[in-house]
Specification:
Layout: E1 2-4, E2 14-19, E3 25-29, E4 31-34, E5 42-44, E6 48-51, E7 60-69, E8 72-81, E9 85-87, E10 100-103, E11 108-110, E12 120-122, E13 131-140, E14 144-153, E15 160-165, E16 168-173, E17 176-186, E18 189-198, E19 209-217, E20 230-237, E21 240-246, E22 255-260, E23 263-268, E24 272-275, E25 284-291, E26 296-299, E27 303-305, E28 313-317, H1 347-352, E29 359-364
Parallel strand pairs: 28-29
Antiparallel strand pairs: 1-5, 2-4, 2-7, 3-6, 7-8, 9-19, 10-13, 11-12, 12-19, 13-18, 14-17, 14-19, 15-16, 15-18, 20-21, 21-24, 22-23, 22-25, 25-26, 25-27
The chain binds calcium ion (2 copies).
Length: about 375
């Protein structure tokens, strides 16, 4: 911690203390002496603190600093995050943070030419008029700073590495640029951070790509990942639409909200729903939202369906050529041999057989 003497006179020997009200912070040595400081001079004092292993990386720590030297005093309160929120791609993949790849080709993690360690992110091998973008989102409770290292080998002045915050380009680099650090201030709130390699319509130079390594995020958290349901399908029938979908790629939803024309129909626990409150000949749009303990997913894909009167289906139930024995239990009392029996099917039984709406029964038997 630096101490500046901004006055016009030297200060005498003094004492500095450091305290913290933050749970999980232990002050190992919270007191330090410093010698006289000349006018406009400075001294640095050191303290030792330990953060509990149970503290989450990025937790903001409040540090209260106090210095006194004779009649002079200085106080300062600082906040700083615990640990580095670091993406250095040393996992060898993109799973350490919620990266989203867009553009024509995704970025890849490669084990050559890294700024630090073994691995670095490298833009996709795109062609003219294409882009390769990697993005991630951080939620900042207070303003902070992001830093990262970048390297470019591209057609100078035409093919660029571009860095965006919330879709707004912050800078771009082209030509031959060896590993360089970039630093940007980020406002509090939800910030989308994107790196894009962009190629114009012709000419490729150098390695024709960009590299990003050693990204240090500010004190922040990743948004909770609430993955949506997948592969929604709709099958129209007579005065009904049968919806079915797949569970999200990850996560355990508590249920699924079924929407028809953006209006909530129902919340269900299984992976299908039959909408019978429909009119034949009308087209309906459906989507599903997965509901989690902490929030809801984005919508699934949207599907359309138009229920209609089904063309009568000819069905055959049984051969009608079997015969009963002397006496068989039946809704219709049978006695002695009957070559042709009667069977009574309930609507539920027919439905269970997959039969809905008008049908022409050509033959029925047992
Ligand atoms: Ca690395
Ligand atoms: Ca080019």
């Amino acid at each position: 911690m630096p101490i500046f003497n901004e006055g016009g006179a030297a200060s005498p020997n003094g004492t500095a203390t450091l305290t913290s009200p933050t749970t999980g912070i232990m002050i190992n040595s919270g007191s330090a002496n410093f010698s006289a400081i000349a006018a406009n001079g400075s001294r640095t004092v050191s303290f030792s603190i330990t953060a509990s292993a149970s503290m989450s990386i990025g937790t903001l720590v409040t540090l209260n600093f106090n210095a006194s030297a004779g009649a002079y005093t200085a106080t300062k309160t600082e906040t700083m995050p615990v640990g580095l929120i670091l993406e250095d791609f040393e996992s060898g993949n993109f799973t350490s943070f919620p990266w989203i790849m867009t553009g024509n080709l995704p970025w890849t993690v490669v084990n050559t030419g890294a700024y630090e360690g073994t691995y670095t992110a490298k833009s996709g091998t795109i062609s003219h008029n294409q882009t390769s973008t990697m993005s991630t989102t951080r939620i900042l409770s207070s303003p902070g700073t992001i830093s990262f290292r970048y390297k470019v080998s591209s057609e100078s002045g035409y093919d660029y590495l571009r860095f965006y915050v919330d879709g707004v380009q912050q800078n771009q680099w082209s030509g031959t640029v060896d590993w360089t650090e970039a630093t940007y201030n980020l406002a509090a709130g939800t910030r989308e951070l994107s790196w894009t390699y962009y190629k114009d319509g012709s000419v490729s130079s150098g390695s024709d790509c960009a590299w990003i390594d050693y990204i240090v995020f500010p004190a922040s958290t990743a948004p909770s990942a609430f993955y949506p349901p997948q592969d929604l399908t709709a099958s129209p029938g007579n005065q009904r639409v049968v919806l079915s979908w797949q569970a999200p790629v990850s996560g355990t939803p508590n249920g699924y909200k079924v929407f028809r024309n953006n209006n909530l129909l129902s919340t269900v626990n299984n992976l299908s729903y039959t909408d019978t409150a429909v009119t034949n000949g009308v087209t309906y749009n459906y989507h599903i939202v997965a509901v989690y303990s902490g929030g809801e997913s984005d919508p699934s894909n949207t599907v359309s369906a138009t229920p209609s009167i089904v063309t009568p289906v000819v069905i055959t139930i049984g051969s009608g050529t079997a015969s009963t024995s002397t006496s068989d239990g039946s809704p219709i009392n049978l006695y002695y041999k009957s070559l042709h029996g009667q069977s009574v099917y309930t609507a539920a039984e027919l439905n269970a057989a997959g039969i809905f709406g008008p049908v022409e029964i050509a033959q029925i038997g047992f």
